[in-house]
Amino acid sequence: MDGAHRIVAGLEAAGVTLAASVPDTWIGKVMEAVRESSKIRAVDVAREEEAVAITCGVNLVGGRGAVLIQNAGLLKCGG
After folding, report:
1. For a Cys-Cys bond, which of 21, 39, 63, 75 suits 17, CB 3.0-4.6 Å?
2. The pTM is what?
């Protein structure tokens, strides 16, 4: 099992139902693995802030969302 599929297995074990991300090279490999999951819905967004908003909405309706972004994207969300 490669790293991307290990990450997805961890997300599934945590009960994640939706994963949102800005498409890029590294995260793209993880999102490909997410798309193979029958338990997690993958959503591509244009900006990191959108991923946070979408996953907050998922959590409000009883799901569990995860934001998959690189460290620079995390800084964009809070800074």
Report:
1. 63
2. 0.85
